[in-house]
């Protein structure tokens, strides 16, 4: 059973301590082959079918650097305003896990390919600058599955299975410098940063950034220091957090947990911690190693990487718009106010709205659905918008039906409810739920006649010079037709029958 630590309410924690963060984001690249061999990288293949002597670390096997991975690393570095090394090399990072077939990870240590960068994120209308320490190349590990326990972790498991398909897949690790922002904004800034990175990496076309598949994951380092202190506290590292919401929740939890310990005179242990999505807490993993514990030394089987300056500039010329420039352009094109654009960004809906607009939907209509009905469903199910199972194509299809008069907004909301619940396509949901808008003139005319006959007092008001009173008749018809009447046609029929 997971033991829940004592925590201090977040307001009390932030009243005493300033959080300091450092974020390490691991990005699996979308290359067709692995970092140092020719094995394929498709997700979901049968276990241990995408391996070879190189990625299994067999004696005598020699690695070769993936040129496409180097190019992707340079793209990421340039997009984050980093300096690109004229010369860098790989190192061996020595530590043992069952899913490390070589018993070391080929990574970069003191000579990364990209360093000294920066980027910006916007939270609640305020811009925060995030300094980038480095973006370096490395290889991913395999994957262990622990069987027989209640939690899926090694503790309590009867045995473990190892799949080496993922071992050797190209990774870029993006490491920030310390992040100090207004205490109340810390977790939100972290969430916004990871969200911004995902959008940037998609635009660069270097990764599919599927957080649910582990191709984008965040390690969140958190420490606390008393107000006014310049000395950094002892940090913990919460590993492999794989959603934007979880980044925010994990950091918030660590702040409250560490504050509870410090406020009673305790000490923070420098360690890695596991994030539990179901309970919203972190638990201890292992004491955190320092750099010297990994016994880094240069990789003897790989030559240094020395990207030509001409090649770097060619890559720079292919970069898409910087995120702030793109956001400003989209805001102008869409006609959104600063507040509306802030809501779009904070809600994680920017790319979803972009794709919906590309399918021919008006930006305001796209925003209405993504930040309204779908955002509500995401909050209720504790999911990200992009994980609801509803995509821009479905939103565009529903809005097209609204534009054609086949649905009204009330019926469209029911269609979205069906989409979120997995009831099928919009057409299937409309048929199954009987949601088609009634536009048949004879049926509507009969409903209008019934409303007029049932409301003589309203008819008298309308005919005595108060046309606005006709709204009550329209409402009665809509109720009679269970909201499935074409309101515009109803109004026309009411006005015609009453001579207004």
UniProtKB/TrEMBL annotation:
Source species, domain of life: Bacteria
Which keywords annotate this record? ATP-binding, Ligase, Nucleotide-binding, Protein biosynthesis
EC code(s) of this entry: 6.3.5.-
Reaction catalysed by this chain?
L-glutamyl-tRNA(Gln) + L-glutamine + ATP + H2O = L-glutaminyl-tRNA(Gln) + L-glutamate + ADP + phosphate + H(+); L-aspartyl-tRNA(Asn) + L-glutamine + ATP + H2O = L-asparaginyl-tRNA(Asn) + L-glutamate + ADP + phosphate + 2 H(+)
Q: Does the keyword Ligase apply?
A: yes
Does the keyword ATP-binding belong to this entry?
Answer: yes
One Pfam family for this entry, by name? GatB_N
Q: Which InterPro entries match?
A: Asn/Gln-tRNA_amidoTrfase_suB/E, Asn/Gln-tRNA_Trfase_suB/E_cat, Asn/Gln_amidotransferase, Asn/Gln_tRNA_amidoTrase-B-like, GatB, GatB_Yqey_C_2, Gln_synth/guanido_kin_cat_dom
Query: Domain named Asn/Gln amidotransferase: which ranges?
Result: 351-498
Q: Which family does it belong to?
A: Belongs to the GatB/GatE family. GatB subfamily.
Q: How does it assemble?
A: Heterotrimer of A, B and C subunits.
Q: What does this protein do?
A: Allows the formation of correctly charged Asn-tRNA(Asn) or Gln-tRNA(Gln) through the transamidation of misacylated Asp-tRNA(Asn) or Glu-tRNA(Gln) in organisms which lack either or both of asparaginyl-tRNA or glutaminyl-tRNA synthetases. The reaction takes place in the presence of glutamine and ATP through an activated phospho-Asp-tRNA(Asn) or phospho-Glu-tRNA(Gln).
Q: What is this protein called?
A: Aspartyl/glutamyl-tRNA(Asn/Gln) amidotransferase subunit B
Source species: Kribbella orskensis
